[in-house]
Amino acid sequence: MRLYRALRMAVTALRRNPMRAALTTLGIVIGIGAVIAMMEIGQGSSVQLSKTIASMGANVLLVFPSATTSSGASQGAGSTVTLRPQDAEALAKECPSLRAVAPSIRARTQIVYASQNWVPNEVVGTTPAWLDIREWPMGEGEAFTDRDVTTAQRVCLIGQTIARELFDGESAVGREIRVSNVPLRVVGVLAAKGANMMGMDQDDVLVAPWTVIKYRISGSQLSSANQSASSSSSAGSISDTYPSGAPSLYPERSTAQARDNPMLTRFVSVNTITAAARSPEAIPAAMEEMRQVLRRQHNLRTGAANDFEIRDMAEMTNTLSSTTRLMTNLLLCVATISLVVGGVGIMNIMLVSVTERTREIGLRMAVGARSRDILRQFLGEAILLCLLGGAMGIALGHGGSLLVKLLAHWPVLTSPAAIVAAVGVSATVGMVFGFYPAWKASRLDPIEALRYE
Amino acid sequence: MTMDFIELKDIRRVFRMGDLELPVLQGVSLQIARGEFVALMGASGSGKSTLMNILGCLDRPTSGQYWLDGQEVSRLSSDERALVRNHKLGFVFQSFNLLARTSALDNVAMPLTYTARQLSDREAHRRAREMLERVGLGDRLHHQPSQLSGGQQQRVAIARALINKPPLLFADEPTGNLDSRTSDGILRMFRRLNEEEGITILLVTHEADVASYTRRTIHIRDGQIVDGAYGTGGQPRGGATAQSGGEAA
User: Fold this and answer.
1) Which residue of B has its CA nearest to A362?
2) What is the dihedral of CA A346, A351, A356, A361, to 10 degrees?
3) How far is residue A269's CA from residue A267's CA, in Å, rounded to a whole number?
4) What is the pLDDT at residue A115?
5) Distance CA B235, CA B35 (A)
6) Chain segment A307-360, per-residue pLDDT in tens
7) Does B230 touch chain A (CB under 8 A)?
8) Which residues pair with B218 in a beta bridge?
9) Global pTM value
10) Residue B109 or A262, more confident
11) Chain A / chain B CB contacts < 8 angstroms
12) Looking at residue B15, what DSSP letter applies?
């Protein structure tokens, strides 16, 4: 009831001079409007940015074999082979925090099409899930299938750079290229992705089923990138052999040997396992799940060191969050400055108003207003002024950001939190900057005030 | 001894201006009974405004005692004095002091905002309308001060002073800004209020003409009462000082 009365009193007072009230609150209108508009546009681009960073692999987790130590000398990461394609399958099945898992094998070799040749940055043997993990859409044609992987079909996908270098504008889909003298049919061209954060060209890539790379390609000359220099005698013969035509490192073992010493059995290994968490927030949980599954898969005892290493793209997520933080801080600075400016405007006009209405204040005191009644009245006016300004600012800012969305096609995201905060902030500004004038009014001596000309 | 409605005992008021002490009231004692119509006269600088401010509970005396309606008001805090002003006193000023760009009705209802017992809007407006009708402005309810003549404005101010039904009305030079014909109307209205409703009225003026409408005159000079400090205990003194045709009201 008292609040209602104070509110009505403030409305009455403001209505006596609507033009001045509007001009007074203009600072708040512009301040809040700018904050809302920037909030909405900022959030829109922040979401866009996090999508972009996610496409660069913010959710990606990599599993490497860990380093071995030989006579006290570390052999460096990846010097043992402990990861198997089965590990990837187990991870995909048993880790709820993972969206997709793919094993991958890397090779470096030359590819040839007609008279053109090229050495891609990356030759990746994997499963179709890899494209999902890297969030890499197809530009042309279609991706190979899981069935192509199990049957080691001689197919591949190429990046834009290879398409340009080998085919020079022609359509690559359906053509056959030779990779280490193994003919692979191009079934699709990946969409352009550009350089990664290190400046490496991500489009300079050839993707094939891992079985093909493992059994048909890396089995042949991996040591030399220049296949034309090597003897062509092995060409064709290797591709006919399945599962592997790799020269065996060890002498043929007898059944008895194999039974006595099963660990020496060479298993099919992969270089890395790539996985994608469901969200950046799920990364820690995903890493823990992967650790447990892999330890069980590798029969590691409690206390034994991991024979693998899981890495996330912490740097990327840090970049993402620091960018967002910087943006928020900048916004806060701008908001604070504009609201202080607006608040000073309110204070200025309220002081003028108090001086102007000195006689009114004296009269109100003479008919029985206590100083706290006067304080409440002027404070109420300032707060109402700011709230009205805030409301107009919200409308203005929202309209502005919609306009930007319509005209400039920027991504915009309405933020209810920002609107609630804007209302709170404008009321606070009214309270802070309205207090001094109101306090001054309440301190007036009624006799002096009544006599004031 | 029963106490009068207003009783001042040795009221002193000293203003301090830096090191200088300026004694404005130098031991004022007076009594006014309920239902009296009193004029307070004095030249400018005589201390009548200061006395008026103390009587109107706007100011506190430096020393001395002031009983109003049996209550010692000279020691009250400013909030308590605001309450007394709201409930027991009405003020009419020389310059009307109406709120600009506010209807007569809202001007009259304004003091109700500060009463402890809250009236509903409807009730407040009903009472304001009643008061305006009583001062003869029933047809000007929604006019703003700028649309009213001086006399009408002063009557709105009187209606405002009466809205809380105070037993005591202060009028500080109420006719100072009005021509003589309008003044006459206003002063008659005061007399009618005094006679018909028993409201005690204290009129501050420096004009003998104005004072002549009242039944008793207190003269003040150099901060001291020179004449009329003690009346006849509230009994009307007949028409001794009321010559010029107020009886018709």
Assistant:
1) B97
2) 110
3) 6
4) 85
5) 8
6) 888 888 776 667 767 877 787 788 778 878 888 888 998 999 999 999 999 999
7) no
8) B40
9) 0.68
10) B109
11) 61
12) E
Here the ipTM equals 0.89
Contact B91 A366 (CB under 8 A): yes
Judging contacts by C-beta atoms under 8 Å, the chain A residues touching residue B58 are 365-366, 446-447, 450
pLDDT at A192: 87
- Single-letter residue type at A428: T
Q: What angle do CA A350, A352, A357 make, to 5 degrees?
A: 90
Q: Which residue has the tokens 């002498």?
A: A251
Distances, alpha carbon A170 to alpha carbons A111, A116, A162, B73, B127, in Å: 17, 13, 12, 104, 94
Contact residues for A139 (Cβ-Cβ < 8 A; gap 6+):
A160, A188, A189, A190, A191, A192
φ/ψ of B115, rounded to 5, equals -80, 150
Going by C-alpha positions, the residue among A193, A220, A221 that lies closest to residue A134 is: A193
How far CA A367 is from CA of A91, A117, A241, B109, B110, in Å, comes to 82, 99, 108, 11, 9
Of B238 and B162, which is predicted with more confidence? B162
DSSP H helices, chain B, are 48-55, 78-88, 104-109, 121-134, 150-162, 180-197, 208-211
User: Nearest Cα to A175, choosing from A162, A185, A160?
Assistant: A185
d(CA A312, CA A224): 32
DSSP one-letter string for A49-117: HHHHHHHTTTTEEEEEEPP-EETTEE--TT-S----HHHHHHHHHH-TTEEEEEEEEEE---EEETTEE
Mutate to test the interface with B, among A5, A364, A367, A371 (most CBs of B within 10 A): A367
pLDDT value, residue A241: 44
CA distance A185 to A300: 41
Q: Identify the sign of the CA torsion A195, A197, A200, A203.
A: negative
- B186 HSE (CA, 13 A, CB side): 31
d(CA A16, CA A21): 9
Please answer whether residues B37 and B201 qualify as being in contact, where contact means their C-beta atoms are separated by less than 8 angstroms: yes
Q: In whole angstroms, give the CA distance from residue A376 to residue A364.
A: 13
